[in-house]
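Section 3.1: Structural characterization of target chains.
Under the original work plan, the team committed to producing a structural model for every single-chain target entering the pipeline before any wet-lab resources were allocated. The record below documents one such target. The sequence was received from the expression subgroup and is listed exactly as submitted; it comprises 293 residues.
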Amino acid sequence: MRANVLRRCGGGRAHAREETERRGAGHRGRGRDAHSMASNIYLVRQRISRLGQRMSSFQLNINPLKEPLGFIKVLEWIASIFAFATCGGFDGKTEIQVTCHKLTENKTITAAFGYPFRLNEASFQAHPDVNVCDVNWKSYVLIGDYSSSAQFYVTFAVFVFLYCIAALLLYVGYTSLYRDSRKLPMIDFVVTLVVAFLWLVSTSAWAKALTDIKVATGQGIVKELQPCNQDVMCYFGSVTSMGSLNVSVIFGFLNMILWGGNAWFVYKETSLHSPSSTSASHGQGGIPPPSGI
């Protein structure tokens, strides 16, 4: 009887020790997790503090604008403005002269169109009469929807405009931060290559769309209007000059050339360009070249 009681007491103490050890291990685990979380928070705060100190050290320095890196960025900024302004601000119309068999006087019907060039929503209007030659011209529209190419081109040009502002602010106000960092020049280089490629894509798409717009609003529209093939005599009148749209295409390809050429000057600021000069000096025996060369 007494032996059984002793066994039970011993087993209870062992169980209590195991429970105490498990609780202690749990507390130590939670303590390690809390310590790890606190250290991570401290590191994040430290990085934010260092970044804040760097960003607060704004110093105006216009010397980068005298270098190709900054000067070309200014040209890119101006060219992007012309690109989206000449395309996004266009408004035009196409006119058709209509002659009825009952009337000898010509009437003019007009279809107004503009950015984003949803021509299938541009209906014809007759002034002052709505139904010229007993035809409801409002039910007839131009052919084609070219909004995707136009909006892609303009939206991309606006984003490039904003990026140029941010890049110029970095060049002029945080010159030392840009030159001392390894990540910022690399990011700038990658963005420059992507932007140059997207200028090629967006401008090519917009140039093709512009060609189709000229066809859809030109003389061929007379053959597409159903009333003109029946009892109504239609003659093509005029269409608004699209010289500004041609300029937008020119500025698109100009932007592509500027960004492609600027990629070299941005590349020289990255760490990819530094090892080449270092290896070249080692290849010459590590002897620096004499001054003046």
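Confidence is low (pLDDT under 50) at residues 276-293.
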